[in-house]
Amino acid sequence: MWYYFIRQKRAVTALLFLVTLVVLSIGNSVIHDGEIRRVSLLFDEDGTVSAAPFAPSAEFLLGTDRKGYDLLHLIIEGAKWTIGAGLLITFMRIFIGLLLAITLAKFNKPLFRSFESFFDSFSVIPMTMISYFLLQHVLTFSNGTTPEPFYLRVGFQMMILIIFAVPTITFYLGNEIKLLLNEEFVRSAKILGGRYPHLLRKHIAPHLNPILIILFLQQFIQVLVILIHLGVLQVFFGGTIVFHGGDIDSVTHEWTGLLGMYYPSFMSHP
């Protein structure tokens, strides 16, 4: 599969682009301590003053927002949070779901079906709505107040985005493992004395790996979609700062938060 991937020039280009953004984002945190370039006023050669927002130019490739923050710099700073959080949440979903699926696949069919029927409701849970109600009061705080520590807010948000997806992933992978266990070549290996760990490692894993890769990509996209929905609802990853007068800002400047923060600007100045 890796050989097929590297032959796809568009996919490789997109991957290199994202990796470059993450490297620049980490470099900005290391070198500039995560500071964002901000220019509120500009003076031209005639001494004329102009105020932010500034249109895209050689000095600001993507322009600035109303506060004078460089939009390109904001995007670079937020890359590590968006991509990093998305990858970590997706990995934990798959990892926990796979461990539980391996365990549940050993159960007999009636017991497995009982568990599956009990947790089947998780497949229709509106993740965005549940996440919004659970995270709104944890992640949103007024400027000047002392919120919960950053790592607690991020940890709680990631836990919510992980646990509600685990049941669906668990029973999807459990059914796939059960199907593979009923294949003739696996039953033959079992008759010859192969134990469950051996069957998993030698006979199940080679067939399950492509499914895991596709599932990982699907879950990564789903995580980003939920974060975008939360961003539009002004619940940003890591926290939402509410200023006097109704202005809001993102703690991490991650992409979905920027999308939600500038959504009114998109609607008023498309």
Automatic annotation (TrEMBL):
* Tree of life domain: Bacteria
Query: What sections of the protein cross the membrane?
Result: 81-105, 117-135, 155-174, 211-237
Q: How does it sit in the membrane?
A: Multi-pass membrane protein
What are the residue boundaries of the ABC transmembrane type-1 domain, all occurrences included?
Answer: 79-270
Quote any Pfam family the record assigns: BPD_transp_1
Which keywords, in A-to-Z order, does the entry hold?
Membrane, Transmembrane, Transmembrane helix, Transport
Listed InterPro entries = MetI-like, MetI-like_sf
Statement: the UniProt record of this protein carries the keyword Nucleotide-binding: no
Compartment(s):
Cell membrane; Membrane
- Family, as annotated: Belongs to the binding-protein-dependent transport system permease family.
Name-wise, this protein is: Peptide/nickel transport system permease protein
Q: Which organism is it from?
A: Fictibacillus halophilus
